[in-house]
């Protein structure tokens, strides 16, 4: 399903370096975050434990704490500098915890989370089986997973401009909604619902978009990327190709956003295995109980 791989350490470094500049460039991220918060209306219970995975600078985590004031809300991010910045959003009246960890190895017990929220983080994870397997593991039965991630049309103009300049990969690729939905089902998550929305941002020149990407930490992280510096000739050719795409005097950039939610599986819910077949798990206590006479 997934024919490319991300350089995980590069992703960590990119976001760590962008921690202090992130909120100067996150207008789209704030818009998407607000939309995701509205998605949480499908959860009608009162949660006690809420995770914000890929919390970044914690702006969204603070909004979750406002929404669920009595819950323990935890910001999780793989980049420690991001979590240090997040401290500014964790007020003394409504504080939240901060934990440095990866989404594919969450340091929380099985079935301990009521709401797992993640806004524009999952596109930086290439092992979807591990990702959604962890989501299914930590969610309580009937707990809510709600997330946004970028789809494959994101930055298609920049990708086309680079393709006109040389044959190398310069822009990270993102997975299709159908691949994401299949991975959620394979992990045993229940009743997934996915939607796609496209945002069009415009810039005065291509360099402004590139500056924004660097400021966000959202730069190329494919493991197969070229490791040498891009020559000035190819860079100028890319800029010229992008300039030819101007619409009404502005440089366009498409952002395809997938929004999804699903529910934590009940105990014993089977999940599909990579090699075929299905596997179900049960607690030891439930197995012991089945043998009582």
TrEMBL record:
It catalyses: malonyl-[ACP] + S-adenosyl-L-methionine = malonyl-[ACP] methyl ester + S-adenosyl-L-homocysteine. Transmembrane segments: none annotated. Pfam families: Methyltransf_11. GO terms for biological process: methylation. Signal peptide: none annotated. Keywords: Biotin biosynthesis, Methyltransferase, S-adenosyl-L-methionine, Transferase. Residues 51-147 form the Methyltransferase type domain. Pathway: Cofactor biosynthesis; biotin biosynthesis. Residues 264-293 are annotated as: Disordered. One of its GO terms (molecular function) is malonyl-CoA methyltransferase activity. Its EC number is 2.1.1.197. PANTHER family: ARGININE-HYDROXYLASE NDUFAF5, MITOCHONDRIAL. Converts the free carboxyl group of a malonyl-thioester to its methyl ester by transfer of a methyl group from S-adenosyl-L-methionine (SAM). It allows to synthesize pimeloyl-ACP via the fatty acid synthetic pathway. Belongs to the methyltransferase superfamily. NCBIfam families: BioC (TIGR02072). This is Malonyl-[acyl-carrier protein] O-methyltransferase.
């Amino acid at each position: 399903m997934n024919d490319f791989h991300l350089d995980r350490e590069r992703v960590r470094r990119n976001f760590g370096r962008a921690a202090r500049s992130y909120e100067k460039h996150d207008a789209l991220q704030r818009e998407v975050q607000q939309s995701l918060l509205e998605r949480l209306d499908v959860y009608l219970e009162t949660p006690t434990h809420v995770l914000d995975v890929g919390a970044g600078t914690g702006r969204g985590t603070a909004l979750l704490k406002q929404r669920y004031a009595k819950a323990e809300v935890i910001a999780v991010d793989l980049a420690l500098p991001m979590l240090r910045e997040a401290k500014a959003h964790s007020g003394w009246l409504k504080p939240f915890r901060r934990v440095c960890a990866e989404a594919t190895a969450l340091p929380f017990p099985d079935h301990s989370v009521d709401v797992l929220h993640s806004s524009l983080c999952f596109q930086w994870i290439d092992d979807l089986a591990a990702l959604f397997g962890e989501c299914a593991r930590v969610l309580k039965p009937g707990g809510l997973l709600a997330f946004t991630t970028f789809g494959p049309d994101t930055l298609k103009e920049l990708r086309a401009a680079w393709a006109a300049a040389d044959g190398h990969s310069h822009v990270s690729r993102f997975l299709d909604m159908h691949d994401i939905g299949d991975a959620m089902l394979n992990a045993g998550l229940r009743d997934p619902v996915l939607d796609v929305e496209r945002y069009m941002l415009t810039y005065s020149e291509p360099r402004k978009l590139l500056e924004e990407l660097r400021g966000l930490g959202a730069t190329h992280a494919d493991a197969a990327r070229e490791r040498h510096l891009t020559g000035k000739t190819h860079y100028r050719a890319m800029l010229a190709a992008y300039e030819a795409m101007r619409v009404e005097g502005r440089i366009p950039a498409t952002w395809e956003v997938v929004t999804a939610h699903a529910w934590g599986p009940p105990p014993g819910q089977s999940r599909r295995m990579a090699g075929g077949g299905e596997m179900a798990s049960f607690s030891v206590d439930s197995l012991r109980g089945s043998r009582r006479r």
